[in-house]
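Worked example

This section walks through a single chain of length 312. The input is the sequence exactly as stored; nothing has been trimmed or padded.
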Amino acid sequence: MNQENQNRIHEEINMEVEIAGVRLKNPVMEASGTFGSGEEYSEFVDLNRLGAVVTKGVANVPWPGNPTPRIAETYGGMINAIGLQNPGVEVFAGRDIPFLKKYDTKIVVNVCGKTTEDYIQVVERLRDEPVDLLEINISCPNVKEGGIAFGQDPKAVEAITKAVKAHAKQPIIMKLSPNVTDITVMAKAAEAGGADAISLINTLTGMKIDIHRRTFAVANKTGGLSGPAIRPVAVRMVYQAAKAVKLPIIGMGGICNGEDALEFILAGATAVAVGTANFHNPYATVETVEGIRRYMERYGVKDIKELIGAVR
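Given that input, the structure is written out below as tokens.
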């Protein structure tokens, strides 16, 4: 194939996707907490090339996070117990949003809280800010319900979704926890509560013990397991959720490249998020975009929508 034909095919390929009425130039973003709020990675990655940038978790007030050590390597991944350390929504709005607005990409703000009122305060503060989507992290411990995560009880999922939706101006994405018996029950609860989209999976609860020190590898004892080790679980859950609800899905969990991302898309995800891979390869997001495009060129796929949920 000559260069002219290659260029024509390259131009004809449409990688644009839509999440709750928000158009993304391609389906690739990065997972919250693995990219800061974009500035740290901007010297490696042209943020204009990403479909969206997802910020780290933002709470109504500053959170100090958990005691150290907070990260431990595991086979095929890592465990983190950062504790959603963040400077709070006021600092975020004044510092991070203006930086991200310099780029031609969509802005997704990850929102965390310990009570329903915490979430509501953040989404209300962001109502008039130039952000496109809100990702609601419901793996946070609900302090009013004995510490169980919002995302582990379907009634709580529906209730928090409904409460946030009533106060949010932007469309809301409910980020589902995999630490449940049946992910479809949680997906349906988010849909019933009025979610505009869902994202999954968040990290799996794991533990590592340092046998030489005879103690826990992270001070919190347990942490969130992420990385390639969890990808098959994540793909399965995305597939199940896609069959259970009509909402667009952002798939994540161990994505390192275009081939990994395509598993999620074929399983039913409209978009994908690259997480842990960013720590060892800061170019992972743009390489994933390029990998998806190469696949489309190779198989003559002109529109990425042909691939979404193609495996039934």
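What to look for: DSSP finds nine helices and 16 strands in the chain.
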